[in-house]
Structure formats: C-alpha cells, structure tokens
Write a structure and sequence with these properties.
By secondary structure, the chain is an alpha/beta fold. The chain has 2 domains: 229 residues, 3-Layer(aba) Sandwich (Malonyl-Coenzyme A Acyl Carrier Protein, domain 2); 64 residues, Alpha-Beta Plaits, CATH 3.30.70.250. The strands form 2 sheets. The protein has a 5-stranded parallel sheet, with helices on both faces. The longest helix has 20 residues. It is globular. Belongs to the fabD family.
C-alpha cells in the first residue's frame, strides 16, 4: 500500500516523569540520543526525564531539551526500523525535533539551543506578568472578537490555533482575564488557564526572539532533506535561511497548527505518526478530520505497534 506519512512532534505541556525511560532501556538507538543529550548539557537530563522531580522537569529550560530528546529518541528508533516520513512538522517547541529529523541542524546543537530558548522565554517576561488560556467551544472569529475587545487593557491575542473549537489565547493578566470573560459571554463552553510561566507567542516575547536570532547566527544550518512545515506560515520552509528567519519569529507569533495540519492533508498525507511524550496532537487531529490515521510512538510497545502497522 502506498502511504504518504508525516512525523509530527508535540510541544511543551506533554512532559511527564518517566517519559522515554523504556525506550532508553530497550532500544540502543534511543539510548544513544539520551546519552548525547546528557553529554552536551553537562547534567543528567535522562535522570530528570525518568525520575523527576516534576518541579525541575517542568522548568522550561529543562522541559524543552527533555521533550526534544524523547521525541528525537522515538523518531530515530522508528527510522532505524526503515520507516521514514515524507514530510514533518512540530508544534512550537516540537518544530525543533522536526528540524533535527530533516537534517537542518544536528541534535547536539538543537538540545543546547532549546535549553537556551527556554531561558530566553523565561527572561523575556517577569513571572506573573501574564499567561495563557485555552478557549473551548467558540468559533475562532468569536475568540478574535474577545481579544480585540480586551486590547485596551494590555496585550492579548490568539497564540495557538489548535483545532476546531480549541484555540489558546495569551497575554498580560488583565487583558487575558477580560478576553476570557468575554469569550464565555460570546458562547465559549469553557476557558481553562494553562500552567505556563508566561504569555508565550505574543509580542511580549520580542526580547527572547532577539536573543534567539543572535544565537542562531552562530549555528551552522543545512537545507531540509525532508520538507518541514513552519508554525508561523503553515507552509514549507524553503531553505536554511528561511529556517533562521522563522525560528525567532516563532516564539512571538501564533502557532498555526490547524492550518499546518490541513496543509499536510491537502498535500496527500494519509498517515501521521506523533513521536514523543503523550498524544496531544492525536487529539487535535481527530477534531480536524475524524477519519485521519494518527499513530504515536513513546515507548517500546507503541514502537512495535507502529512498525507492525507499516509492515502489514
């Protein structure tokens, strides 16, 4: 059977203590990825993934390299079985796993880069200045209206277009609270504040974008060997210079996930494999197209099941 396959990678929020442990224990290819991460970072990231404590794993400068490492470990284990993607994409932080996979930057550089990305994002806004909230059950136009009506109180905007009936808004506290209340008035079923340390994917992250751009300038990139779809444009990243331009923008621009996913469907993808902790993107996918085939790999059992699916 002729399939067109996309590998997809989730972002922050999908981490949990114990993630990647079984892959590390039972798969040599995955083990090597964790070992490399520990060497590059100069501390036991693998120990933090496997044993916690949760408070440390949840610090963004640890979360980002941890999720990248588990995701790349899962992807390399699958590719080692001869299963390769036709294209790839990742949600926010997950885009870095997609770029490693497509050969744009080496894992060694990426794992340090995302640790610093976490630090820059944390430093860009003081703790408690703002946050993010998921708006459920309201049309996107209604959410945009709610944000527009609250802008006089501060920065607030749609940060993530996840799937129909679920978008995430982000901004300064007063504006975020007002937009959340207005969204309920306009018919949202629920508004759920997210456990994040700042108003990510807004203009407030501009200091982080600048630091990231400075750091990227010193890293050797290659052109993508596997097509990668950008969060910022919901289109393919043309070459390495486009990647360098888009990655800093990504921390302060909206994540166009639903649009990116629809682009992959339009381009003929019929099988998606979510690699790394959890299955958040699988949930979004079902709401975008209930008939879509989405598999996920995060441990040896799921790896075996996916390999069997492709070989049948």
């Amino acid at each position: 059977m002729d399939r067109k396959t996309a590998f997809i990678f989730a972002g922050q929020g999908s981490q949990y203590v114990g993630m990647g442990k079984e892959l590390y224990q039972h798969n040599d290819v995955s083990w090597a990825v964790f070992d490399l991460a520990d060497q590059e970072l100069g501390y036991s990231l693998s120990g933090l993934c496997f044993n916690g404590p949760k408070e440390e794993l949840d610090k963004t400068e640890h979360t980002q390299p941890a999720i990248l490492t588990v995701s790349v470990a899962a992807a390399r284990a699958l590719m080692d079985q001869g299963i390769n993607p036709d294209l790839t994409a990742g949600f926010s932080l997950g885009e870095y796993s997609a770029l490693v996979l497509s050969g744009v930057l080496p894992f060694e550089a990426a794992v340090k880069l995302v640790r610093n990305r976490g630090r820059y994002m944390q430093e860009a806004v003081s703790q408690g200045v703002g946050g993010m909230a998921a708006v459920l059950g309201l049309e996107t136009s209604g959410v945009e209206q709610a944000c527009l009506g609250a802008e006089s109180l501060g920065v607030v905007r749609i940060a993530n277009y996840n799937c129909p009936g679920q978008v995430v808004i982000s901004g300064e506290n007063k504006a975020l609270e007002a937009a959340s209340a207005r969204a309920i008035e306009l018919g949202a079923k629920r508004v759920i504040p997210l456990e994040v340390s700042g108003p990510f994917h807004t203009g407030l992250l501009e200091p982080a974008a600048r630091k990231l751009a400075d750091e990227l300038a010193g890293i050797e990139f290659s052109d993508p060997r596997i097509p990668v779809i950008s969060n910022v444009t919901a289109d393919y990243m043309a070459d390495k210079s486009a990647v360098k331009e888009l990655l800093p923008q990504q921390v302060m621009r909206s994540v166009l996930w639903e649009m990116s996913f629809r682009r992959m469907l339009a381009d003929g993808v019929d099988t998606f494999v979510e690699l790394g902790p959890g299955s958040v993107l699988k949930g979004f996918a079902r709401k975008i197209d209930k008939n879509v085939k989405v598999l996920n790999v995060e441990d040896p059992t799921s790896l075996e099941a996916v390999v069997k699916y492709f070989n049948d």
